Amino acid sequence: MKKIVIIILISCFAIKHTKAQEIIYNEDAKLLTTFSFIQLTGGCIILKARLDDFKDTLNFVFDTGSGGISLDSTTVDYLKLTKTKSDKVIRGIAGIKKTEYALKHSLHLPNLVVDSLDFHINNYDILTSSYGMKIDGIIGYSFLRRFIVKLDYDKNEMKVYNPGYIKYPRNGYLMKPKFSPLPIDNHDLKDEVKVNTNLIFDTGAGLNLMLSEECIKDNALLKKNKHFYPMKTEGLGGQKLMNLTTVKELSVGKYKFKHVPTMIFEDDFNITNYPLMGGIIGNDILRRFNLIINYPDFAIHLQPNTHFLEPFDYSYTGLSIHLIDKKVTVIDVIDNSPAQKAGIKEGDQIFAFDNVITNNLQAYKTALQNSNNKIKIIVLRDGKPLDITLFVQNIKR
Length: 397
Fold this sequence. Notes:
With 397 residues, this protein is mainly beta.
Protein backbone atom coordinates (compact mmCIF):
# COMPACT_ATOMS: atom_id res chain seq x y z
CA MET A 1 0.00 0.00 0.00
CA LYS A 2 1.03 3.61 -0.37
CA LYS A 3 0.90 4.38 3.30
CA ILE A 4 -0.34 7.49 5.03
CA VAL A 5 2.41 7.41 7.62
CA ILE A 6 2.18 10.01 10.33
CA ILE A 7 5.47 11.44 11.46
CA ILE A 8 5.19 13.69 14.47
CA LEU A 9 8.74 14.79 15.07
CA ILE A 10 8.76 18.08 16.95
CA SER A 11 11.76 19.75 18.46
CA CYS A 12 12.62 23.23 19.65
CA PHE A 13 15.99 22.23 18.21
CA ALA A 14 18.49 23.43 20.70
CA ILE A 15 20.63 20.32 20.20
CA LYS A 16 22.32 19.84 23.52
CA HIS A 17 23.04 16.26 24.46
CA THR A 18 22.46 15.11 28.01
CA LYS A 19 24.81 12.27 28.82
CA ALA A 20 23.63 9.23 30.70
CA GLN A 21 24.86 9.15 34.26
CA GLU A 22 24.38 6.85 37.21
CA ILE A 23 21.66 8.02 39.57
CA ILE A 24 21.31 6.47 43.02
CA TYR A 25 17.78 6.46 44.42
CA ASN A 26 16.92 5.99 48.07
CA GLU A 27 13.39 4.79 47.31
CA ASP A 28 11.74 2.47 44.81
CA ALA A 29 9.71 3.96 42.00
CA LYS A 30 6.05 4.07 43.03
CA LEU A 31 3.24 3.10 40.65
CA LEU A 32 0.97 6.12 40.20
CA THR A 33 -1.58 4.92 37.64
CA THR A 34 -2.44 2.23 35.10
CA PHE A 35 -4.68 2.77 32.08
CA SER A 36 -5.35 1.51 28.56
CA PHE A 37 -4.35 3.17 25.31
CA ILE A 38 -5.50 2.94 21.70
CA GLN A 39 -3.05 1.71 19.07
CA LEU A 40 -3.53 2.73 15.44
CA THR A 41 -2.06 1.33 12.22
CA GLY A 42 1.69 1.86 12.26
CA GLY A 43 1.70 1.43 16.04
CA CYS A 44 0.92 5.03 17.06
CA ILE A 45 -0.47 5.40 20.59
CA ILE A 46 -3.51 7.51 21.50
CA LEU A 47 -4.07 8.46 25.16
CA LYS A 48 -7.33 9.81 26.59
CA ALA A 49 -6.94 12.77 28.95
CA ARG A 50 -8.63 15.98 30.09
CA LEU A 51 -7.32 19.52 30.48
CA ASP A 52 -7.77 21.55 33.67
CA ASP A 53 -11.38 21.38 34.85
CA PHE A 54 -12.90 20.89 31.41
CA LYS A 55 -15.14 17.82 31.15
CA ASP A 56 -14.31 16.99 27.53
CA THR A 57 -12.06 13.96 27.02
CA LEU A 58 -9.25 14.75 24.58
CA ASN A 59 -7.12 12.53 22.33
CA PHE A 60 -3.32 12.85 22.64
CA VAL A 61 -0.58 11.14 20.65
CA PHE A 62 2.10 9.71 22.96
CA ASP A 63 5.33 10.81 21.31
CA THR A 64 8.96 10.44 22.34
CA GLY A 65 9.71 12.37 19.13
CA SER A 66 8.22 15.54 20.61
CA GLY A 67 10.47 17.96 22.47
CA GLY A 68 7.59 19.33 24.57
CA ILE A 69 3.82 18.99 24.84
CA SER A 70 1.23 20.53 22.53
CA LEU A 71 -2.43 21.28 21.82
CA ASP A 72 -4.33 21.53 18.56
CA SER A 73 -5.23 25.11 17.66
CA THR A 74 -8.92 24.25 17.14
CA THR A 75 -9.00 22.60 20.59
CA VAL A 76 -7.44 25.72 22.11
CA ASP A 77 -10.12 27.88 20.44
CA TYR A 78 -12.91 25.52 21.51
CA LEU A 79 -11.76 25.62 25.14
CA LYS A 80 -11.15 29.38 24.89
CA LEU A 81 -7.63 29.15 26.27
CA THR A 82 -5.38 32.20 26.44
CA LYS A 83 -2.61 32.21 23.82
CA THR A 84 0.84 33.64 24.51
CA LYS A 85 3.14 34.54 21.61
CA SER A 86 6.72 33.32 21.57
CA ASP A 87 9.92 33.64 19.53
CA LYS A 88 10.58 29.90 19.82
CA VAL A 89 10.38 27.75 16.68
CA ILE A 90 9.44 24.12 16.20
CA ARG A 91 10.51 21.91 13.33
CA GLY A 92 8.89 18.99 11.56
CA ILE A 93 9.46 17.00 8.40
CA ALA A 94 7.40 19.42 6.29
CA GLY A 95 7.80 22.79 7.97
CA ILE A 96 9.21 25.15 10.53
CA LYS A 97 7.20 27.78 12.38
CA LYS A 98 7.10 30.08 15.34
CA THR A 99 4.71 28.89 17.98
CA GLU A 100 2.24 30.28 20.46
CA TYR A 101 1.77 28.75 23.92
CA ALA A 102 -1.05 27.93 26.29
CA LEU A 103 0.71 28.36 29.63
CA LYS A 104 0.34 26.75 33.05
CA HIS A 105 -2.31 24.12 32.42
CA SER A 106 -2.88 20.73 34.03
CA LEU A 107 -3.22 17.41 32.26
CA HIS A 108 -5.64 14.90 33.81
CA LEU A 109 -4.87 11.27 33.01
CA PRO A 110 -6.73 8.46 34.82
CA ASN A 111 -5.80 8.85 38.53
CA LEU A 112 -2.94 11.23 37.71
CA VAL A 113 -2.83 15.03 37.43
CA VAL A 114 0.25 16.70 35.93
CA ASP A 115 0.40 20.41 36.76
CA SER A 116 2.19 23.47 35.37
CA LEU A 117 2.49 22.37 31.76
CA ASP A 118 3.18 24.86 28.97
CA PHE A 119 1.56 23.58 25.75
CA HIS A 120 2.76 24.88 22.42
CA ILE A 121 -0.03 25.28 19.87
CA ASN A 122 -0.16 23.64 16.42
CA ASN A 123 -2.79 22.92 13.82
CA TYR A 124 -3.38 19.16 13.72
CA ASP A 125 -6.24 19.09 11.20
CA ILE A 126 -4.19 16.95 8.82
CA LEU A 127 -3.48 14.44 11.58
CA THR A 128 -7.17 14.32 12.52
CA SER A 129 -8.28 13.56 8.97
CA SER A 130 -5.46 11.05 8.41
CA TYR A 131 -6.08 9.14 11.66
CA GLY A 132 -9.86 9.30 11.27
CA MET A 133 -10.24 10.63 14.81
CA LYS A 134 -9.85 14.04 16.45
CA ILE A 135 -6.28 14.70 17.54
CA ASP A 136 -6.25 17.30 20.33
CA GLY A 137 -2.57 17.29 21.14
CA ILE A 138 0.74 15.50 21.59
CA ILE A 139 2.33 14.34 24.85
CA GLY A 140 6.13 14.43 24.71
CA TYR A 141 9.20 15.44 26.67
CA SER A 142 7.49 17.85 29.09
CA PHE A 143 5.54 14.87 30.48
CA LEU A 144 8.15 12.14 30.03
CA ARG A 145 10.92 13.94 31.91
CA ARG A 146 8.83 13.76 35.12
CA PHE A 147 8.00 10.04 35.17
CA ILE A 148 8.91 6.47 34.38
CA VAL A 149 6.52 5.00 31.79
CA LYS A 150 5.94 1.32 31.06
CA LEU A 151 4.30 0.47 27.73
CA ASP A 152 2.78 -2.99 27.34
CA TYR A 153 1.83 -3.51 23.69
CA ASP A 154 0.45 -6.97 24.42
CA LYS A 155 -2.24 -5.47 26.67
CA ASN A 156 -2.31 -1.94 25.17
CA GLU A 157 -1.64 -0.73 28.70
CA MET A 158 0.45 2.08 30.17
CA LYS A 159 1.80 2.29 33.71
CA VAL A 160 3.22 5.55 35.10
CA TYR A 161 5.66 5.66 38.04
CA ASN A 162 7.34 8.46 39.91
CA PRO A 163 11.17 8.61 39.54
CA GLY A 164 12.99 6.11 41.72
CA TYR A 165 14.77 2.79 41.70
CA ILE A 166 13.25 0.32 39.26
CA LYS A 167 14.33 -3.25 38.56
CA TYR A 168 14.56 -3.95 34.84
CA PRO A 169 13.71 -7.45 33.54
CA ARG A 170 16.77 -9.62 32.94
CA ASN A 171 15.59 -10.72 29.52
CA GLY A 172 15.74 -7.69 27.30
CA TYR A 173 18.08 -4.86 26.49
CA LEU A 174 18.80 -1.64 28.38
CA MET A 175 19.52 1.36 26.17
CA LYS A 176 21.33 4.37 27.56
CA PRO A 177 20.52 6.96 24.89
CA LYS A 178 21.58 10.58 24.72
CA PHE A 179 18.84 13.20 24.92
CA SER A 180 18.52 16.34 22.82
CA PRO A 181 15.85 16.33 24.48
CA LEU A 182 14.72 13.57 22.11
CA PRO A 183 16.20 10.12 22.88
CA ILE A 184 18.98 9.29 20.41
CA ASP A 185 20.90 6.00 20.26
CA ASN A 186 23.49 4.42 17.99
CA HIS A 187 22.38 1.71 15.54
CA ASP A 188 23.89 -0.45 12.81
CA LEU A 189 22.35 -0.50 9.33
CA LYS A 190 23.36 -2.89 6.58
CA ASP A 191 22.53 -3.02 2.90
CA GLU A 192 25.25 -2.47 0.28
CA VAL A 193 27.59 -1.57 3.14
CA LYS A 194 27.41 -1.51 6.93
CA VAL A 195 26.75 1.89 8.47
CA ASN A 196 26.63 3.06 12.08
CA THR A 197 24.47 6.10 12.78
CA ASN A 198 22.40 7.81 15.48
CA LEU A 199 18.63 7.39 15.21
CA ILE A 200 15.82 9.13 17.11
CA PHE A 201 13.62 6.81 19.18
CA ASP A 202 10.17 8.02 18.07
CA THR A 203 6.91 6.46 19.32
CA GLY A 204 4.95 9.15 17.47
CA ALA A 205 6.06 7.97 14.03
CA GLY A 206 3.82 5.37 12.38
CA LEU A 207 6.64 3.68 10.48
CA ASN A 208 9.58 1.31 10.90
CA LEU A 209 12.62 3.28 9.79
CA MET A 210 13.16 6.67 8.17
CA LEU A 211 16.54 7.88 6.90
CA SER A 212 17.64 11.18 5.44
CA GLU A 213 18.88 11.30 1.85
CA GLU A 214 22.14 12.77 3.15
CA CYS A 215 22.72 9.73 5.35
CA ILE A 216 21.97 7.37 2.45
CA LYS A 217 24.16 9.15 -0.11
CA ASP A 218 27.02 10.05 2.21
CA ASN A 219 27.45 6.42 3.26
CA ALA A 220 26.46 4.78 -0.06
CA LEU A 221 24.20 2.60 2.10
CA LEU A 222 21.77 1.24 -0.49
CA LYS A 223 22.46 -1.06 -3.40
CA LYS A 224 22.49 0.64 -6.80
CA ASN A 225 19.61 -1.48 -8.11
CA LYS A 226 17.28 -0.56 -5.22
CA HIS A 227 13.75 0.23 -6.33
CA PHE A 228 12.01 3.24 -4.78
CA TYR A 229 8.27 3.76 -4.38
CA PRO A 230 7.05 7.36 -4.01
CA MET A 231 4.61 7.99 -1.17
CA LYS A 232 3.11 10.81 0.88
CA THR A 233 3.49 11.32 4.61
CA GLU A 234 1.93 13.76 7.03
CA GLY A 235 3.63 15.64 9.81
CA LEU A 236 4.21 19.08 11.22
CA GLY A 237 3.88 21.50 8.30
CA GLY A 238 1.70 19.32 6.07
CA GLN A 239 2.38 16.59 3.51
CA LYS A 240 5.77 15.54 2.20
CA LEU A 241 6.75 13.28 -0.68
CA MET A 242 9.18 10.48 0.24
CA ASN A 243 10.52 7.26 -1.24
CA LEU A 244 9.77 3.85 0.22
CA THR A 245 12.26 0.97 -0.05
CA THR A 246 13.80 -1.67 2.23
CA VAL A 247 17.07 -1.88 4.17
CA LYS A 248 18.62 -5.33 4.46
CA GLU A 249 19.23 -5.17 8.22
CA LEU A 250 18.62 -2.88 11.21
CA SER A 251 20.08 -3.50 14.65
CA VAL A 252 18.23 -2.28 17.74
CA GLY A 253 20.50 -3.06 20.68
CA LYS A 254 21.18 -6.81 20.50
CA TYR A 255 18.19 -7.41 18.22
CA LYS A 256 18.31 -7.54 14.42
CA PHE A 257 15.49 -6.98 11.94
CA LYS A 258 15.78 -8.11 8.32
CA HIS A 259 14.43 -6.39 5.19
CA VAL A 260 13.02 -3.41 7.03
CA PRO A 261 10.59 -1.11 5.16
CA THR A 262 12.35 2.25 5.08
CA MET A 263 11.35 5.75 4.06
CA ILE A 264 13.94 8.04 2.50
CA PHE A 265 13.30 11.76 2.87
CA GLU A 266 14.96 15.01 1.96
CA ASP A 267 15.62 16.77 5.28
CA ASP A 268 14.72 20.29 4.11
CA PHE A 269 14.18 21.57 7.66
CA ASN A 270 17.18 19.89 9.27
CA ILE A 271 15.28 17.85 11.84
CA THR A 272 18.12 15.30 12.01
CA ASN A 273 20.98 17.80 11.95
CA TYR A 274 22.95 15.24 9.94
CA PRO A 275 25.60 13.86 10.57
CA LEU A 276 24.52 14.15 14.21
CA MET A 277 21.55 11.90 13.38
CA GLY A 278 20.72 9.80 10.33
CA GLY A 279 16.98 9.42 10.85
CA ILE A 280 14.43 7.83 13.17
CA ILE A 281 13.14 4.47 14.39
CA GLY A 282 9.35 4.52 14.49
CA ASN A 283 6.68 2.73 16.44
CA ASP A 284 6.12 -0.09 13.94
CA ILE A 285 9.49 -1.35 15.20
CA LEU A 286 9.10 -0.21 18.81
CA ARG A 287 5.66 -1.85 19.26
CA ARG A 288 7.45 -5.21 18.96
CA PHE A 289 8.87 -4.60 22.43
CA ASN A 290 7.34 -3.85 25.80
CA LEU A 291 9.12 -0.69 26.88
CA ILE A 292 10.25 0.96 30.08
CA ILE A 293 10.88 4.60 29.21
CA ASN A 294 12.87 6.14 32.05
CA TYR A 295 13.89 9.69 31.14
CA PRO A 296 14.88 10.58 34.75
CA ASP A 297 17.48 7.77 34.64
CA PHE A 298 18.42 8.34 30.96
CA ALA A 299 17.37 4.79 30.11
CA ILE A 300 14.97 2.85 27.87
CA HIS A 301 14.49 -0.90 28.35
CA LEU A 302 13.26 -3.11 25.49
CA GLN A 303 11.75 -6.55 26.02
CA PRO A 304 10.48 -8.51 22.98
CA ASN A 305 6.74 -9.16 23.13
CA THR A 306 4.22 -11.25 21.19
CA HIS A 307 4.48 -8.88 18.19
CA PHE A 308 8.26 -9.28 17.85
CA LEU A 309 8.16 -11.82 15.01
CA GLU A 310 5.21 -10.35 13.14
CA PRO A 311 5.97 -9.82 9.44
CA PHE A 312 6.55 -6.31 8.17
CA ASP A 313 4.03 -4.58 5.95
CA TYR A 314 5.49 -4.53 2.41
CA SER A 315 2.32 -3.35 0.69
CA TYR A 316 2.21 -0.44 -1.75
CA THR A 317 -0.74 1.07 -3.64
CA GLY A 318 0.03 4.78 -4.07
CA LEU A 319 -3.32 5.58 -2.44
CA SER A 320 -3.88 8.26 0.22
CA ILE A 321 -7.19 8.19 2.09
CA HIS A 322 -8.44 10.55 4.81
CA LEU A 323 -11.68 10.92 6.73
CA ILE A 324 -13.24 14.17 5.52
CA ASP A 325 -16.72 15.25 6.61
CA LYS A 326 -17.23 11.71 7.98
CA LYS A 327 -16.52 10.17 4.57
CA VAL A 328 -13.44 8.12 3.65
CA THR A 329 -12.05 10.14 0.75
CA VAL A 330 -9.12 9.73 -1.65
CA ILE A 331 -6.93 12.80 -1.24
CA ASP A 332 -4.00 11.76 -3.42
CA VAL A 333 -3.01 9.15 -6.01
CA ILE A 334 0.67 8.73 -6.92
CA ASP A 335 1.47 8.72 -10.66
CA ASN A 336 2.09 5.25 -12.15
CA SER A 337 1.13 3.59 -8.87
CA PRO A 338 -1.19 0.58 -8.53
CA ALA A 339 -3.98 2.93 -7.42
CA GLN A 340 -3.67 5.08 -10.55
CA LYS A 341 -3.46 2.01 -12.79
CA ALA A 342 -6.66 0.71 -11.16
CA GLY A 343 -8.44 3.94 -12.10
CA ILE A 344 -8.82 5.49 -8.64
CA LYS A 345 -8.95 9.29 -8.68
CA GLU A 346 -8.51 12.06 -6.17
CA GLY A 347 -11.89 12.98 -4.67
CA ASP A 348 -13.33 9.47 -4.92
CA GLN A 349 -15.25 8.40 -1.84
CA ILE A 350 -14.55 4.87 -0.60
CA PHE A 351 -17.88 3.13 -0.13
CA ALA A 352 -16.73 -0.48 0.43
CA PHE A 353 -13.67 -2.77 0.50
CA ASP A 354 -14.35 -6.41 -0.42
CA ASN A 355 -18.07 -5.88 0.29
CA VAL A 356 -17.35 -4.43 3.75
CA ILE A 357 -19.11 -1.08 4.17
CA THR A 358 -17.84 1.21 6.94
CA ASN A 359 -16.68 4.75 7.65
CA ASN A 360 -13.89 3.38 9.85
CA LEU A 361 -10.73 4.75 8.24
CA GLN A 362 -8.46 2.52 10.32
CA ALA A 363 -10.29 -0.58 9.04
CA TYR A 364 -9.59 0.42 5.43
CA LYS A 365 -5.93 1.15 6.18
CA THR A 366 -5.58 -2.27 7.77
CA ALA A 367 -7.20 -3.89 4.73
CA LEU A 368 -4.64 -2.18 2.46
CA GLN A 369 -1.79 -3.80 4.40
CA ASN A 370 -2.00 -6.94 2.32
CA SER A 371 0.72 -7.19 -0.32
CA ASN A 372 0.43 -9.42 -3.40
CA ASN A 373 -3.35 -9.32 -3.11
CA LYS A 374 -6.23 -7.74 -4.97
CA ILE A 375 -8.99 -5.75 -3.29
CA LYS A 376 -12.44 -5.13 -4.68
CA ILE A 377 -13.35 -1.49 -4.02
CA ILE A 378 -16.59 0.39 -4.59
CA VAL A 379 -16.06 4.13 -4.93
CA LEU A 380 -18.56 6.93 -5.33
CA ARG A 381 -17.57 9.38 -8.07
CA ASP A 382 -19.89 12.24 -8.86
CA GLY A 383 -22.52 10.39 -6.85
CA LYS A 384 -22.28 7.23 -8.96
CA PRO A 385 -20.89 3.87 -7.72
CA LEU A 386 -17.93 2.33 -9.57
CA ASP A 387 -16.42 -1.15 -9.11
CA ILE A 388 -12.62 -1.10 -9.07
CA THR A 389 -10.05 -3.87 -8.59
CA LEU A 390 -6.89 -2.71 -6.85
CA PHE A 391 -3.76 -4.86 -7.02
CA VAL A 392 -1.55 -4.33 -3.96
CA GLN A 393 2.15 -4.37 -4.81
CA ASN A 394 4.91 -5.93 -2.70
CA ILE A 395 8.00 -3.73 -2.22
CA LYS A 396 10.18 -6.56 -0.91
CA ARG A 397 12.60 -7.45 -3.67
